[in-house]
Specification:
The chain is an alpha+beta fold and 268 residues long. The chain has helices at 30-40, 47-56, 103-123, 160-167, 175-188, 246-265, and strands at 13-18, 23-29, 61-62, 70-71, 76-81, 84-90, 96-97, 100-101, 138-142, 154-158, 201-204, 210-214, 219-223, 236-241. The two termini are 24 Å apart.
Length: 268
């Protein structure tokens, strides 16, 4: 099984951030879409989709790759870019009473999380090669669950190209990524705006590997245990700590999206 930690692979998807719309953006290569349509057909009939529909009582789903991708109209398709289909997931405003979010108000956010869970299961390990001219920089796999502990866990990998670039970023230059996470969290939970400002952090650990933290009980993502083996020329895997809520998950995904956008702007 090929891994982006060990070799440069043509991109099959990219994660981005739309600051104006406060939206996560998924760019999916046409070659990947065509292959998955041929392999799977109608995703509505997939057991994982049926389970998520039942678990969250979503009202509907659309996985046709044409007009959208996900549950409850979580995404809309935007203009294609350089052979990539573009889907935008606008983060919702979540109502909270006494700073406690109500379960019904979380449903739009859960619809995004569940949609990205389905996509990540399809895309985490991809054996074919697309015709993309640029390489895959990161991959993620996420879950959407009703359990309270690690109910929205994630893990993934950074490519060796991305890691080489990350190592040369000074911590003081990472405020733009922190700012995107703050924007995402404040969008979803405006009642907490300016309360948790010190809990957003993006920095390198002592080994030069990247840590992203957001509000919560030591909630964040960072290098997994295997990544501390000394392979300077390779990428590495990452996982999460105390990633319980959908708000935390989407906030950290926004941070990853900002990281990816900046890397592309700097020609990685």
């Amino acid at each position: 099984m090929r891994s982006i930690t060990e070799e440069d692979l043509p991109a099959w998807y990219e994660l981005g951030w739309d600051a104006a719309a406060c939206a996560l953006v998924l760019h999916v290569h046409e070659d990947f879409v065509k292959e998955k349509i041929q392999e799977i057909g109608d995703l509505k009939k997939a057991p994982i989709v049926e389970d998520l529909m039942s678990r969250f009582a979503f009202s509907g789903c659309n996985f046709d790759w044409e007009t959208g991708f996900g549950f409850n109209n979580a995404s809309i398709r935007r203009e294609d870019v350089n052979g990539f289909r573009t889907f935008s997931f606008a983060l919702p405003v979540i109502k909270a009473s006494n700073r406690v979010a109500s379960i019904p108000s979380l449903l739009p956010a859960e619809a995004i999380s569940a949609s990205l869970m389905v996509f990540s299961l399809l895309s985490r390990y991809y054996e074919s090669r697309t015709s993309a001219s640029r390489s895959q920089l990161l991959v993620f796999q996420s879950i959407a669950s009703t359990q309270t502990c690690y109910g929205h866990a994630m893990d993934g990998e950074y490519s060796r190209k991305l890691v080489a670039w990350i190592r040369n970023l000074p911590d003081e230059s990472l405020e733009d990524i922190t700012g995107v996470m703050r924007q995402a969290y404040d969008r979803m939970l405006p009642v907490y705006k300016k309360i948790f400002q010190w809990e957003y952090r993006v920095f390198h650990d002592d080994s030069g590997r990247l840590i992203l933290d957001c509000p919560g009980n030591a909630c964040g993502i960072g290098p997994d245990e295997m990544s501390y083996e000394d392979h300077e020329e390779e990428g590495y895997g990452w996982n999460c700590h105390n990633l319980d809520t959908v708000i935390q998950q989407l906030t950290l995904l926004a941070g990853l999206a900002a990281l990816h956008d900046r890397a592309r702007k700097e020609a990685v």
